[in-house]
Amino acid sequence: MPNLLDIRRRIRSVKNTQQITKAMKMVAASRLRRTSEQAIQARPYSERLFSVHDTIVDRVPELNGPLYKRRDGKWLLVVISSDKGLCGAFNSNLMKAAHKWLTHKGQAQVAVLPIGKKAISYFKKQSFERVTAKIEPIRDVNLEVAEEIARTMLSIYEGDGWQEVVVVYNKFKNVMVQEVTFSELLPLIGDSRTSDAESATAGVEHLAEPDMGSILDQLGPKVVLAQVYQALIESGAAEHAARMTAMDSATNNASEMIEKLTLDLNKARQAAITNEIIEIVSGAAAL
Amino acid sequence: MSALHLEILTPDRVAFEGEVSSVYLQGELGRLGILPDHTPLISNLSFGVLDCEQNGRDRNVLCGPGFVEVNDNRVSVLVKSAESKDDLDVDRAKNSLERARSRINSMEKDIDVPRAEASLARAHTRLKFVDAI
Question: Does residue B9 sit in the same domain as residue B68?
């Protein structure tokens, strides 16, 4: 027979936990609204940018900038995780997919650049080669952060020995679904990015000023930046969505638990009262 | 006369979208004027003021470096930043002007002079844009 006091204590602690998860759910919901708005606001720019880029890439017969050549070397996987936990399977799904990809390519052929505290601590324990870059933990995604990451990636890639840079992150599909997505970042070879929005400009002979080549020199890094930024905000929105659902179910579980414990408490109380009555009655009968 | 559809897009937002009758931009090689039925064009843009005319009224936006694409009476301006007169931070521009000046004038060796000069020029353009100089 569980002690009345113990059950009361447990109910109180579960209630406290529930309060915390409820608050976290609210916070995640409001941040989700902000980040998903941010993601939507950023979309037109990157779509137009990619389409302009594709148009130029189609027109320039020989792409010889360092960002366009396919070379021999290793693969670099950039893993974008969150800084904080308590968001369900958000990070573990990502790590699982990243791990599988890396093992598939072969350990000697790959290196990892983790972004976000969770990814950094995960890959510290793994035996893959790590590229360390000075990237501050991301609290709020903004352009400066994306710029810094994009710059780091470009400078790594421009050094010799890299075949491809691939980013893996959680894509925000909707509030319930996050999708682990791999996207090729470098080299910038047009076809991988082509989506439906491009068809409008395909085949149009644009005048170029000063000339296609020098526009491309400027445009290439911008495309990388836009992709990094997109990945970061998508991952941010996905993180908050994941946390919101995780905290919602935690709150529900806590409610269920409180219900069960209250039932136990009442049963225990009733048993105690019955016991007392029996004691009194049998005491009275003995007189 | 057909109108131009102008979009000013920055990485984090849509800064302007609407019908205009003309657009003047700061191209890398000089000012670019775009009127309806302009031939398809892609150009680099430098930091500078974009002027456009909307319903007979002038509108100015200070645009960061980027690109413009013109196609089929659709002008897409893809720039790093876009500020109108109202949301330009004058104090910040003044501060960066001072900072750039002192960086250029200081005799230290490890100063990136071209970068400081570019920053000075940007701050100057900003202040001139809001008539604060």
Answer: yes
Q: Please give the Cα distance from B4 to B1 (Å, whole number).
A: 10
Is the domain of B71 the same as that of B110? no
The ipTM (two decimal places) reads 0.79
Residues B32 and B24: beta-carbon distance below 8 Å:
yes
Q: Using one digit for the tens of pLDDT, what is the confidence trace for A65-121?
A: 777 777 788 888 989 888 888 888 899 999 999 999 998 888 888 888 888 888 888
Enclosing H/E stretch for A182: strand A178-186
Which of B11, B13, B43 is nearest residue A226 as measured by Cβ atoms? Answer: B11
pTM equals 0.82
pLDDT for res A74: 86
Say whether residue B78 is in contact with chain A using an 8 A CB cutoff.
yes
Ranges A203-207, A257-261, B63-67, B72-76: which has the least confidence: A203-207
Q: Determine the distance in angstroms separating the CA of A76 from the nearest CA of chain B, rounded to an integer.
A: 25
Distance, CA of A68 to CA of A212 (rounded, Å): 14
Contacts of A46 in chain B (CB under 8 A): 11
Range of the domain at B40: 4-83
| Residue A224, in any domain of the structure | yes
Tokens of A94: 């990502």
Helix crossing, A143-158 with A212-286: angle to 10°? 120
Closest CA in chain A for residue B8 = A45
Would you call A209 and B76 a contact, using CB atoms and an 8 Å cutoff? Answer: no
> What is the domain count for chain B?
2
- For position A169, which CATH number holds? 3.40.1380.10
Pick from A206, A209, A225: CB nearest B71: A206
CA pair distance A138, A140, nearest whole angstrom: 6
Provide the terminal-to-terminal Cα distance of chain B, rounded to the nearest Å: 38
Contact A48 B13 (CB under 8 A): no
